[in-house]
Design goal:
The protein is of the alpha/beta class. It is globular, with a radius of gyration of 26 Å.
């Protein structure tokens, strides 16, 4: 440990004192202790039984094959109940575990035996299981995986910016597809439907639709009949799965000597016998029903960031209120049930076999966002007593699951904002804030019914979902626009890739006489990347329905049930398709353009040759040039010079997106949410004109470049505001990280500062805001002495993770973010 003679956050105090108040939470801490910081194991059963079924159903419609494969998994996968847990339902073995999805990554399984050796997010697997995978599972999927199809289908000019090898196993990190290491984007189910109706009634509806089909119609018999048959089968699958857990609970109870635990298991057996087949009658049944639904989703598909929890404070509140009034539940009892879910959630690890996917999601990342607050479908404030219970739980039982997301609007109650601020001050990065004042009107303008827009759920990193009308699921493209800067400086080339022309040959920049010439060259590179990204994404959208189906997700979607089409289908009539493309390196690009414009062409403090020579040498021997470059106006300081450049780049992206969104009928929107990809994307970019050294992380999200934001967090907010194009609608999430010193938010005065900042952010209609409140010295000490900082949680990009689970590069990225000392 280190001696820190300054203010500590509550999290830092707990770590410093090695103390955690466990009273009243002995059960959940006991479960947490059993797996905390252990290396996860791979469970191969899902892959085995999914593949077993798929071998037997070749030639049948894909949605029907998928449903049968899920039924096979429900029948044969080992079921477990975590010792001492009040909930049942896992997708794999006890402890920390991940599962395989061979339909996605089966062509990567030759790397399985080495997963325990990789630096980022290692996994363990036994030699016997590796043998089974390589001999019984992988051979079937060879030549059948979506990744192989995409790699073979991609034209050579697109492959040249996408992959760095012939087999497509290695990303080039220029225009990166993300669809080949997940079967879908993040998603939110209609959990209230399950709790209110149960799967028996949902199955009844599917059977009625099946029975009412026109049996003389070729279309209905070929397209709709297998869909509704699949709906009936997946309802059977989850109901069978839950009954098997009921049987297990009774078996465990029969062998249990502790009478208290025996009674808990018998009660759990009764609950699993009822839900999710039947409607939930009380809070415990509602929580268990939701958990079964969420966990079975993980068996169905590898959704990016996992299936989120939706608006839990809304759909669970009637059961909570009923049981509290009846005297059969206390707030402490409700928190214990929820925290049982949190520790169960923490044991499932979203496994990435694909090395590029692993680069994008460090720290065993998955974020099943729990949405609290916001507004009701009729526009009233939605906070209730359960809302505050979630915040209390996050402060009292700090761990990185669930990913708590607070919806804020202009009329959010003062108590709510105050308790959000207190939770933020704890220092674990929760909750992230999502702004109704930006999202609701934007979604309404894009065609969402207003009541649905008001009822959105936070999903994944910083996204929003409307569960019954959104239908777009393809993983989207990440564009490294910092490479456009490098290719402008090197006539279409990148130092990482030698003499290969990666972009366009726009000329030798040392021959440019004016800013307009340089600017035009940059925009050509920028547009070229956009064009390649949009072509790539269209290919992705065309290929995916041949490889993926989601009958379980579809049975919970009103539109899918009504139209008889799987959620993975292209263009479901009546659905809203909200997609995005990622702007990687926003601050890096803006500051680089600002430096060239200001220092080379306007003030003439440097020549273009001096800049080119300096970046080619990674500033070695050119330190003076680097220091001059760093004097240019930078994004993140409420400086009109830099912010105008930022707004123009956003406009270029949105105008391009608008043109081709009209062509495709899909909202393709610019988004600024890198997850952790700004680190690997930076590793292919040499030194940039903003003074950033070669191969280091790019700026993240819509945040400022590392150390460039020197005028406090309010200036960061204002730069975000001034760089937005509110008159354009092809915009999506802007992830914004703010790092504060614990000293600046100390005491009640500090809480008021956080409250005021939240209100200001809300008034500016910015999409997202999240905080790291931690001392730099703590992070450095944790890097040097990880054993003493195993419980240190930090905010990364739309999720929080244990600092010691991160690679050194990502740790350095967090350390190097500006720690604001004033507000």
């Amino acid at each position: 440990m280190y001696n820190l003679d300054c203010c500590l956050s509550p999290q830092e105090e707990r770590i410093e004192k090695k103390s955690m108040d466990r009273s009243g939470r002995e059960r959940v801490y006991g479960i947490l202790d059993s797996f905390h910081m252990t290396t996860p194991y791979i469970d191969i059963e899902r892959a085995r039984y999914f593949t077993e079924s798929m071998k037997l159903t070749e030639g049948q419609p894909l949605v029907l094959r998928w449903a049968k494969a899920l039924l096979n998994c429900a029948e044969k996968m080992t079921v477990y109940i975590t010792p001492n847990s009040l909930l049942a339902g896992r997708s794999g073995k006890l402890g920390r575990y991940g599962i395989l999805y061979p339909e996605i990554d089966g062509d990567f399984y030759f790397t399985l035996a080495d997963l325990d050796k990789r630096e980022k997010s290692p996994f363990k697997i036994t030699p016997e299981e590796v043998k089974i995978v390589l001999e019984d599972i992988a051979p079937y999927w060879k030549g059948r995986t979506y990744h192989e199809h995409l790699n073979n289908a991609m034209p050579e000019d697109l492959r040249g910016v996408t992959y760095d090898d012939d087999s497509g196993l290695k990303s080039k990190f220029v225009v990166s597809e993300t669809s080949s290491y997940r079967s879908a984007l993040q998603w939110v189910h209609d959990y209230p439907k399950v709790l209110k109706r149960g799967f028996k009634d949902i199955q009844r509806e599917a059977q009625e639709r099946l029975d009412s089909l026109d049996h003389e119609s070729p279309i209905e018999m070929w397209e709709k009949k297998p869909f509704y048959e699949a709906m009936v089968i997946v309802c059977d699958a989850i109901m069978l799965w839950s009954r098997r857990h009921a049987d297990l609970a009774r078996e465990l109870a029969a062998a249990e000597e502790n009478e208290t635990r025996k009674a808990e298991l018998l009660k759990l057996a009764e609950i699993c016998e009822r839900v999710p087949a039947e409607p939930a009658r009380n809070f415990h049944e509602a929580v268990q029903s939701q958990w079964f639904t969420q966990m079975f989703s993980r068996i169905e598909q590898k959704a990016s960031a996992i299936i989120s929890n939706g608006r839990m404070d809304q759909y669970l509140f009637p059961y909570y209120e009923q049981d509290i009034k009846a005297g059969v539940l206390t707030p402490e009892g409700a928190k214990e049930l929820l925290e049982n879910m949190w520790v169960e959630m923490a044991q499932f690890i979203d496994l990435y076999i694909n090395p590029t996917g692993n680069e994008f999601n460090e720290g065993y990342a998955h974020w099943e966002a729990v949405t609290i607050g916001g507004q009701t479908p009729n526009g009233k404030d939605a906070t209730n007593e359960l809302t505050y219970l979630f915040l209390e739980s996050k402060r009292e039982f700090p761990m990185n699951y669930p990913d708590l997301a607070a919806r804020i609007h202009s009329r959010s109650p003062e108590r709510f904002i105050h308790e959000v601020a207190l939770t933020i001050k704890d220092g674990t990065g929760f909750p992230k804030l999502i702004n109704d004042e930006e999202i609701v009107p934007l979604y309404a303008i894009k065609g969402a019914p207003l009541d649905q827009a008001l009822d959105y759920s936070v999903s994944g990193c910083t996204e929003a979902r409307m569960p019954n009308i959104e239908t777009y699921t393809s993983g989207c493209v990440y564009i490294n626009f910092a490479t456009a800067i490098e290719m402008t400086m090197h006539n279409g080339r990148m130092l990482k890739y030698g003499s290969e022309v990666v972009g366009l040959e726009t000329g030798d920049p040392t021959t440019f006489k004016t800013w307009d010439e340089f600017h035009e060259a940059y925009l050509k590179q920028h547009h070229n990347l956009l064009a390649k990204a949009f072509r790539q994404q269209y290919i992705v959208d065309c290929l995916r329905p041949e490889h993926f189906a989601t009958p379980f997700a579809s049975v919970l979607h009103d539109l899918c049930m009504d139209k008889g089409k799987d959620l993975q289908s292209q263009h479901i009539e009546g659905g809203l398709e909200y997609s995005y493309f990622e702007f990687l390196g926003y601050g890096t690009v803006v500051d680089s353009l600002s430096a060239i414009k200001k220092l080379v062409f306007e003030d003439k403090k440097l020549t273009m040759k001096e800049v080119v020579d300096a970046i080619n040498a990674n500033f070695e021997g050119h330190e003076e040039v680097r220091e001059i470059l760093k004097t240019a106006p930078c994004y993140g300081n409420n400086d009109p010079y830099a912010d105008t450049i930022a707004r123009e780049l956003d406009s270029v992206c949105q105008e391009f997106a608008h043109k081709y969104s009209l062509e495709r009928g899909v909202n393709l929107d610019v988004r600024y949410v890198p997850i952790t990809s700004h680190v690997p994307f930076g590793k292919v970019v040499s030194a940039t004109p903003n003074g950033r050294p070669a191969w280091t992380a790019l700026s993240d999200g819509s945040s400022a470049s590392h150390g460039a934001d020197k005028k406090g967090p309010t200036a960061v907010l204002m730069s975000n505001y001034h760089s937005k194009n509110n008159g354009l609608m092809n915009r999506a999430s802007r992830l914004l990280n703010v790092k504060l010193s614990p000293k600046v938010v100390e005491g009640e005065e500090g809480t008021r500062k956080v409250v005021d900042m939240i209100r200001t952010w809300c008034d500016l209609h910015l999409w997202h805001l999240q905080f790291n409140i931690v001392n730099r010295e703590t992070l450095i000490a944790a890097q040097k002495d990880p054993d003493n900082y195993r419980d240190l949680i930090v905010r990364i990009a739309g999720y929080s993770a244990y600092f010691c689970d991160l690679s050194r590069d990502l740790q350095n990225d967090i350390i190097n973010r500006t720690e604001h000392q004033m507000m």
